[in-house]
Amino acid sequence: MFTTGRILFSVFFIVAFAIAMFFAYAKDKKHQKYYYKNVWIVAVGILLTIVIFATLTFWLHE
After folding, report:
1. DSSP character at residue 2
2. What is the domain partition of the chain in residue ranges?
3. What CA–CA distances, in Å, run from 18 to 13, 14, 30, 47, 61?
4. pLDDT 10s per residue in the chain (62 long)?
5. Cα–Cα nearest to 53, from 39, 45, 42
6. What is the spatial distance between Cα 10 and Cα 17, in angstroms, rounded to a whole number?
7. pTM of structure
8. Strand runs (DSSP E) across the chain, as ranges?
9. What burial letters (b/e) apply to 2-35, b meaning 16+ CB within 10 Å?
10. Whole-angstrom distance, CA of residue 12 vs CA of residue 19
């Protein structure tokens, strides 16, 4: 099912992708503090929305 060529391609692709992601992250690291400084507020809002919907769903279907 998996030939030697497919396995080699997969390995090289995974390694190249990991290296590219590392360099992209390192390049973008200096901008992250500016763009993502209040991201926790969004995360709390999303979690609060999920909790409210789940609570309403269980409360209304009793």
Report:
1. -
2. 4-60
3. 8, 6, 20, 30, 47
4. 889 999 999 999 999 999 999 999 988 887 887 778 888 899 999 999 999 999 999 988 87
5. 45
6. 10
7. 0.51
8. none
9. eeeeeeeeeeeeeeeeeeeeeeeeeeeeeeeeee
10. 11
